[in-house]
Amino acid sequence: MTTLLWLQASGCGGCTMSLLCAESPGVIEMLEDAGIRLLWHPALSLETGAEARAILDDLAEGRTVLDILCVEGAIARGPLGTGRFQMLSGTGQSLMHWVQRLAPKARHVVAVGTCAAFGGVTAAGGNPTDAVGLQYDGAHAGGLFTPAWRSGSGAAVINVAGCPTHPGWVTETLMMLAAGETIAVDGYARPRFYADHLVHHGCPKNEFYEYKASARELSEQGCMMENLGCIGTQAVGDCNIRPWNGEGSCTRGGYPCVNCTAPQFEDPSHAFVDTPKITGIPVGLPTDMPKAWFMALASLSKAATPHRIGTNARSDRVVVPPTLRKPR
Amino acid sequence: MTQARLVVGPFNRVEGDLEVTLDVADGHVARAQVNAPLYRGFERMLEGRDPRDALVITPRICGICSISQSAAAARALGAAMGLTPTPQGAIATALIHAAENVADHLTHFHLFFMPDFARPDYSGRPWHLRAVERFTAMEGSAQRSAVQARAELLHVMGLMAGKWPHTLAIQPGGVTRAPGPREKARLGATLRAFRRYLETVLFGGRLEDFCALPDAAALLRWSGGDVALFLEIADDLGLHSLGRGAGRFLSFGAYPTHEGPCFAAGSLMQGQPGTVRPADIREDLSHAWMTGTAAHPLDGMTIPDEAMGDPGYSWCKAPRLAGLPMEVGALARQVVDGHPLALSLAVEGGVLARVGARLLELARTQILMERWVADLVPGESFMVQGSLPRDGIGEGLVEAARGALGHWIRIRNGRIATYQIIAPTTWNFSPRDAQGVAGPLEAALEGTPVEGPVPLAVQHVVRSFDPCMVCTVH
């Protein structure tokens, strides 16, 4: 049996809400089937007040073995390093203090969501509460814990980043940990099983992208990279390979990818739905694409845009269907 | 007379962080103080940004009311732009918003509220074994089927809003994705499946029959599904008279379409209906860890008192309408809309009324969602474009699952100058104001019996409000 404690630090609770959208099986059955016993979760467990405090004390004192600690939300260090912008109610101690106490007891520590991983939206706009991630402060290694910090298993904090996280990213991480498997991570400690993909992969707007047939306003079907701030060609995530909530994703919903799996996505130097440009050329290039080739291919493909694709790109639905071909 | 002070926390199975301090005299709550112990500072994060960024940032205030925050931000921006959604865009927005609110009501009933009745403290009650089987936390059979039904209902989001939570699909002029005929068919299938779940499992009867219940007495005779189990428990434990409110209700009106809101806007004070003048709203800071003076949200600021000094005891401000605390939520919405069952429940206005009104609204909203899907016209315009003014103000008032939600934006030189938010639980769980008047939960807790270190009656009252603490302070 693998024990799991889930704490909600300074965040919105949306990663838990997303986790409850897990299907086939649902999250409760998934935990059960993987042999994971949920010791306490602030939204799901029975125990409240003194009962919950007893569970936390037993873990902190080592009377209960803690295999996995999941932290959702950033760590608020303010004001003045006290952590008092988030007190764990009923305990007289900050949440920061509790994470510092509990994380060293855990075999594995999982930062669930971009806030817990890097600070995320909680650290946006001047970071009013001096919030950081567990082991990162934005893109810089070292958050609440130093870069050299390791959990009981000898591993660094696993950053299941996303705003929110896809339920599959969390459930698969937990299942792999419970099975004793090692989780390969990328340069920001995100599991490679989803971070080796780009949001661009499987995006239904790919044909528009091929010709740089661009939407100019939200609700138009065209590619949103050129004008509407979409950075799906740079953002990691398998969002368009495995769908969200049945068959969705941000780009399927008709709005740009804002790179929510990345550190510091919360403070782009421009409006989220604008693409920054220099002399009309988008500043951000698709990942691993040489600039000169991108420029050459983009201008060529744009010039070659078929009527169907150019027209549909500026429409909110398909107005020109594909030309029918008769079999020879 | 015996007196003691009891601090209940961490107070779980509410969304976010909550601490309740009780002064207990002779086994009953003499005085309650509600503390929202998490401050993040969203209003400050927004200052200086492009106004459109509010559509990305404010949903992330809350993972359970994310769409409500989207809708309020879109309406505030729309007000500043002089833009309203197209008729079809309004219907699509209502559908997305209602799916979240219905999912939240379902989550509250099964995951947050009912598990307390499976506690061993109630063993021996005639209903206890059934409560254990259906509602034990993480194990109950009703919990599991509700989580599955909720996940499948939220396929509405995958089709219409990309994902949930945290979508950018809701815009001032409508929605970013225009549904076609096959989306319409699929939405219909998703809603029919959800109705089947509601009618066979939760309600154990036709939703239309539940919506036609005329009063509280008729409600208590409802005999189907887990609703009947709740009613049996409520009757046995006297939940009708537990945690009674002050009888002052506020609703901004839910699901605006071109025929007006589907649940009416207004207030109800001691049975007297009234219209709401948002200009009469003030946020009092006297008992919040905030500096500044009471102000209307368009003039308000959020400057935390980092010393957390007395007499402050919460990060939550105290909103007042014409000087009075107001209760918001499903009960408020349904009484303001004039539904006879809700009006009957509101006479006592306790735990049974709040939970019963939420069930009523769940049934009524399912019927509304079905109507909106039928009214979708593929091929019509779902979004109109507009442009933001360089300087302007905007007010966005919506109804979240938990009640009245308002956003107020002031735009200067094309950037956000100030952005203020009053969330439902800011109303319900407000601290005292300068006159020493307690917030709605604080008042409702007075007189509640206290037994043991984690008093169950107190938990029933607190959870009956379905608080969302992450929204409260934001």
UniProtKB/TrEMBL annotation, chain A:
Query: Its Gene Ontology molecular function terms?
Result: 3 iron, 4 sulfur cluster binding; 4 iron, 4 sulfur cluster binding; electron transfer activity; ferredoxin hydrogenase activity; hydrogenase (acceptor) activity; metal ion binding
Task: Name it.
Answer: hydrogenase (acceptor)
Q: What region holds the NADH:ubiquinone oxidoreductase-like 20kDa subunit domain?
A: 12-177
Pfam families associated with the record: NiFe_hyd_SSU_C, Oxidored_q6
Q: Which InterPro entries match?
A: Cytochrome-c3_hydrogenase_C, NADH_UbQ_OxRdtase-like_20kDa, NiFe-Hase_small_C_sf, NiFe_Hase_small_N_sf, NiFe_hydrogenase_ssu
Where does the record place the Cytochrome-c3 hydrogenase C-terminal domain? 197-272
Q: What is its main location?
A: other
Q: Which GO terms describe its biological process?
A: anaerobic respiration
Top-level taxonomy: Bacteria, Pseudomonadati, Pseudomonadota, Alphaproteobacteria, Rhodobacterales
Q: Which residues are noted in the entry as [4Fe-4S] cluster 2-binding?
A: H200, C203, C223, C230
Species name: Pseudotabrizicola alkalilacus
**What residues does [4Fe-4S] cluster 1 bind to?**
C12, C15, C115, C163
Q: Where in the cell is it found?
A: Cell envelope
Family under the similarity heading = Belongs to the [NiFe]/[NiFeSe] hydrogenase small subunit family.
TrEMBL record, chain B:
Q: Which GO terms describe its cellular component?
A: cell envelope
- Positions binding Mg(2+) in this chain are E43, C62, I421, H474
Q: Which Gene3D superfamilies match?
A: Cytochrome-c3 Hydrogenase, chain B (1.10.645.10)
What keywords sit in the KW lines? Iron, Magnesium, Metal-binding, Nickel, Oxidoreductase
Compartments where located: Cell envelope
Judging by the UniProt lineage, the source's domain of life is Bacteria
Annotated positions binding Fe cation? C65, C471
Task: Spell out the InterPro entries in the cross-references.
Answer: Ni-dep_hyd_lsu (IPR001501), Ni-dep_hyd_lsu_Ni_BS (IPR018194), NiFe-Hase_large (IPR029014), NiFe/NiFeSe_hydrgnase_LSU (IPR050867)
Q: Name one Pfam family in it.
A: NiFeSe_Hases
Q: Which cofactor does it need?
A: Fe cation; Ni(2+)
- Gene Ontology molecular function terms on file: ferredoxin hydrogenase activity; nickel cation binding
Principal cellular location given in the protein's record: other
User: Which annotated residues bind Ni(2+)?
Assistant: C65, C468
Q: Which family does it belong to?
A: Belongs to the [NiFe]/[NiFeSe] hydrogenase large subunit family.
* Name of the molecule in the record: HupV protein
Q: Which organism is it from?
A: Pseudotabrizicola alkalilacus
